[in-house]
Structures are given as C-alpha cells and as structure tokens.
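Changelog note: in this version the structure field was regenerated for every chain. One regenerated record is shown below for reference.
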Amino acid sequence: MKKAIYTLLAMSFLAACQTEDVSDLGKLRTERDSLNTVQKEITTRLKEIESKLALVDSNSNLHSVTIVSVNPQPFAHYFKVYGKVESNKSINLYAETSGRINNILVKRGQNVAKGQLLAEIDASILIQNIAEVKTSLELANELYKKQSKLWLEDKIGSEVQYLQAKNNKESLDRRLETLNAQLAMTKVRAPFNGVIDDIFPKDGEMASPQMAMFRLVNLSEVYLTSSVSEAYVGKIAVGTPAKVTFKSLGKTVESDVVRVGNFINPDNRTFEINVALGNDLNYKPNMMASVDLQDYKVDEALVVPTRLVMETSSGESYVYVLEGKGAEIATVKRVIINTGVSYDGQTEVLSGLSGGENVVDKGSRSVKEGQKVRVVILAE
C-alpha cells in the first residue's frame, strides 16, 4: 500500500517537473516541502491503522463470556414437605336409629341448607305409640286436675291420691317427650350447608347407626394438613409463609401456616401443621400438594446463581469476577467466597463479595485466573 502511494507521488512530481520552468527554483522547493509533509501524515496514519488492526486481530480469539451483576436483594430459604387437603365440613351422615328407609329426598351433587330434610326412616310404630301416650295423657291430665282441686282446695281425699295422679301425668309427659325425640331421629337432616357428594343406600333398604347414608361436603373452609420434621420445630410458627403447589391443578398458592401441632409423633418424629387455602371449588378433600415452608429470610443479601459457585481441591467455594466495569475486554479474577443457604437456584454469599461485582456467568467453566475475556452480553 505504501509503495503505491509513493509511486503515485513520484509520478505526480515528475509530471509537474515536465510542465514547470526549471528556472523557478523557489516554487519547486515549496511544492517539494508540501509533498514531504503529506508523505509524513500518510505514513503516520498508516501506522495507526496497522496498530489497530493488530489489536483487533489479537482480541479476535478471546473467550466470550456473559456476566451477572451482584447487588443486595431480599432472599428467603424454603424447605419442602407434602400434605393433603382436608375440611372440617366433609363428613359421612349416619342414621340415628334403625329402620326401613321410606324416602330419600335429595340427589347427588345437590346443594342443601343446614337443617334440610334429606331422608325419612319408617316411624309408623313410633307414631302409634305417640298416639296411645297422648290418649293416656289426656286422661292423666283430667285426673290430675280433679285430684289437685279436691286435695289442695277442698281438702277431700288423701295426699297419696294427689301424688299418684301427679306422678302419672308427669311420667306420661316424659314418655311423650322421649317418643317425639325418637321420631325426630327417623328424619336425617343436614347439619350444615353443603353439597351431597354421595348417597350410599337406596329407598326401601334398612338403615342403621352403623351404616353411612350420605357424604356431605362444604368446600368453603378447606385447609392443607402436613407433617413436618422435628428438626424444624423452632422455625415454624403460626404465620410462617408457605407456597402450596397443586401439581394436578397446575397452580401455586401463596399462603401461611394457621396452626402448629403441639405433639411430636413418636413413630416418625414429626409434628402436624395446617396451611390456609382460599375458597376454590377445585380443592377436593384428600387432594395431594407440595408445600414450601419458609425457615430463613433476610431483607438484603448478596446472592449468585448456584451454578456459578465452584470449589477448589481443598473445598473452598469461589466464583470468577471481572476486574473493571463496563469494559468490553476484561481480566478474570478468582474470588474465594463464604456461602450460606441455597434455594431455587440462588446461593447466599456471606463474605468475599461486597456488592457491585460482575460475576462471570456463561463461560465460567472455561476461564481461568488472569485470563482476558470479551464481554458479549450484560446479563441482568
């Protein structure tokens, strides 16, 4: 390139000499000096270009990396347990007395209100007994009135007759009350609002207190029950944050612990907790879920992706940090760190970093101490 420039200048100079008067020595010398100046400027610029080209060529083979900036941020640690959905209002209803089922008044899936009649059991014998007692009670009331008047007002007869009449009347009153209570037991009613989830017997079958008739469910008050290792007994309390994940529903619910058991199961050394759930009809009793319980939290911590933390042969943890900030070409430095707990792909750094460092991310497994690298992406 320089030869071509020199050749061009020489040709220009010779052409000028052919057309100029040789006697004009001053003019020629001025032009010579001007061309010498141009030549020096061209030579200087060529050296600058060659220097930059050499630098680009030397950096073209540098290892490319991305970085993660380390700055203070909130950090929490959770541990995982498993549990199931339960409800205080999910029960089987049983008949309170034995007898033939005369009528089932509801269907599966039907919403019912508290106190609503669900089924009737044959009570014909009880009804007859009640009728007999009522007849006897009418006579007993009349006799009691007469004996009361004779003894208390007219002082006629004896006190024994009066007491016998009173006792007979009161006995029949209690007898009628008992029969009415037994009659009420032949009617199966809903103890709370809910949905008839299942009906076990059919019309005409025999009912008994040992045989379930209905499954009644109310999903407005469901919660998750889980067993937690005794090792966490001092870290879990009412109000502890929890993340409940239902794999079958594909959703995670942010919640908290509403009850902590006061008993350690001697068989598996665990205690029971309850986690609140919202009013979602998709929750079903006995549905399984995983629960992440928070056992550690700090408002400001330095954290790095766990995948970037490496270990020396002596077991020390370290990361690679870039010296300088904002440069496209930087030098790698190995920094020994003291780590805390890890969760969800993040590890807490207790010492070694002060904040603001750029930690080598992608490419960290291929670099070494003192190596120059090219930063191609500034990862957030």
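Spot check on this record: The longest helix spans residues 25-59. The radius of gyration is 48 Å.
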